[in-house]
């Protein structure tokens, strides 16, 4: 009887223990479901990457540039060297129309139309060069139909006239002697010779890059004006960011294509800590990254500094602009990249939680560089761990982080 009672009692205890185990498993199951639904675990795979410390800026372009204007500037320009073309000292740049050539210009325009019509009737003129020019003309016509910008319209019209002139010259070479097209082109050449003989030619007085985009600030925003510039003065110029300087029909200029400067007012702590000769990277709106050096700094107030960067690459990309938006990359760092949300700070040591096949390890990592969102990390060396107070046994048992490890984000240990 006692034995039977003991067995019954033992069975009840076993049932009680099993019941407790079932309850614990159930609680754990529903808790994990809760965590997955309400607080899902996020993970991140470690890869090599780069982080930046950067900020946006708006800058004013300062250049060494010399404006060239002749006596007959009101007559209009005929470009000899194209926008952005490099020239040496003494090279012809452009010429002005002579005072009595308005009738000749009109006659040339009329001849261009006649030549164009005559060429359409001649199938033997459809060389690859002419087809390429026709394609370029059609592309410009499409742009012309989509804009109301007066400056762009004038630019497109000039481009079309230049292409038509090139077509006429090609057609003249292909035309048989005595043909109608040949006679028209010869007549046009005669008018053009009369224009050239009576016009004022302008040559370059120095080497550099030709530009016809003249805005009147060439003698104001110069490298010699740094000590007179302020953020307030630059703002009062009322320039639009990213606006292309319109082409002048009166003058041209030679631009130093080896270097230029960008002045910007900044209010961040990083800008206030900057020093002359610091090197960094500027990212332009076309995503081109160029090296820069801080040439000049002036503290305007407790909250603002005016910084002037010197650049000697990508200068020709900036010739068409006076005011631009760009990114200032104060520093960049490359290595094992992780989100800051994966980092746990305990006793002034940084840890991450690695997950391998469901097993987690807490690993101490060294923060090499960090910005607002990401960090570049590495493992501590044995010597570093010894200096931190870890014993040889502890160091021996420590795990190390590697490329493509999966780590847990937003974890609390």
- Gyration radius over CA: 36 Å
Average pLDDT over all residues: 85
Q: How many separate domains?
A: 3
CATH fold assignment of the largest domain: Elongation Factor Tu (Ef-tu), domain 3
Main sheet attributes: strand count, strand direction, barrel closure: 6 strands, antiparallel, barrel
Layout of SSEs?
Elements: H1 2-38, E1 42-45, E2 47-62, E3 65-68, E4 77-79, E5 86-87, E6 92-96, H2 102-120, H3 128-145, H4 150-174, H5 180-197, E7 200-203, E8 208-211, H6 231-235, E9 252-255, E10 260-266, H7 269-273, E11 279-284, E12 289-299, E13 305-311, E14 323-339, E15 344-346, E16 349-356, E17 359-370, E18 374-378, H8 382-387, H9 392-396, E19 406-409
Antiparallel strand pairs: 1-19, 2-10, 2-14, 3-9, 4-6, 5-8, 6-7, 8-9, 10-13, 11-12, 11-14, 12-13, 14-18, 15-16, 16-17, 17-18
Describe the overall structure:
α2 runs antiparallel to α5 and α3 packs antiparallel against α4. β11 and β12 form a beta hairpin. The protein has 9 helices and 19 strands. Strands 2-10-13-12-11-14 form a 6-stranded antiparallel barrel. Strands 3-9-8-5 form a 4-stranded antiparallel β-sheet, with no helix packed on it. Strands 4-6-7 form a 3-stranded antiparallel β-sheet, with no helix packed on it. The longest helix is centred in the N-terminal third of the chain and has 37 residues. The protein has 3 domains: 83 residues, conserved putative lor/sdh protein from methanococcus maripaludis s2 fold, CATH 2.40.420; 124 residues, Elongation Factor Tu (Ef-tu), domain 3; 101 residues, no CATH class. Helices cover 33% and strands 31% of the residues. By secondary structure, it is of the alpha+beta class.
């Amino acid at each position: 009887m006692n034995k039977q009672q003991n067995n019954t009692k033992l069975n009840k205890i076993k049932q009680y223990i099993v019941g407790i185990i079932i309850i614990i498993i159930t609680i754990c199951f529903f808790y994990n479901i809760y965590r997955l639904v309400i607080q899902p675990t996020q993970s991140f795979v470690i890869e090599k990457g780069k982080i930046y410390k950067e900020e946006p800026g708006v800058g004013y372009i300062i250049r060494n540039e010399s404006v060239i204007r002749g006596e007959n500037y009101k007559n209009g320009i005929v470009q000899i060297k194209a926008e952005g073309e490099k020239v040496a000292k003494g090279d012809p740049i452009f010429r002005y129309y002579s005072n009595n050539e308005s009738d000749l210009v009109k006659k040339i325009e009329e001849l261009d139309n006649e030549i164009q019509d005559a060429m359409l009737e001649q199938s033997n003129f459809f060389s690859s060069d002419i087809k390429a020019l026709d394609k370029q003309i059609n592309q410009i016509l499409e742009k012309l139909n989509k804009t109301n910008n007066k400056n762009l319209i004038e630019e497109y019209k000039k481009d079309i006239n230049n292409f038509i002139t090139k077509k006429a010259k090609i057609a003249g070479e292909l035309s048989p002697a005595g043909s109608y097209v040949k006679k028209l082109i010869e007549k046009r050449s005669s008018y053009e010779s009369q224009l050239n003989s009576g016009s004022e030619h302008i040559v370059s007085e120095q080497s550099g890059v030709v530009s016809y985009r003249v805005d009147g600030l060439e003698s104001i925003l110069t490298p010699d004006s740094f000590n007179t510039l302020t953020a307030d003065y630059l703002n009062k110029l009322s320039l639009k960011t990213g606006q292309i300087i319109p082409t002048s029909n009166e003058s041209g200029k030679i631009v130093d294509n080896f270097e230029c400067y960008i002045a910007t007012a900044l209010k961040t702590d990083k800008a206030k800590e900057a020093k002359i000769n610091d090197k960094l990277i500027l990212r332009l709106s076309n995503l081109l990254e160029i090296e820069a050096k801080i040439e000049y700094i002036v503290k305007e107030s407790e909250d603002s500094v005016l910084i002037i960067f010197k650049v000697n690459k990508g200068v020709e990309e900036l010739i068409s602009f006076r005011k631009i938006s760009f990114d200032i990359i104060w520093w960049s760092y490359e290595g094992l990249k992780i989100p800051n949300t994966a980092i746990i700070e305990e006793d002034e040591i940084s840890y991450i939680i690695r997950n391998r096949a469901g097993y987690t390890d807490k690993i101490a990592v060294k923060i090499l560089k960090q910005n607002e969102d990401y960090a570049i990390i590495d493992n501590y060396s044995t010597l570093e761990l010894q200096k931190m107070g870890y014993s040889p046994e502890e160091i021996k048992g420590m795990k190390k982080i590697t490329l493509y490890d999966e780590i847990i984000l937003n974890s609390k240990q």
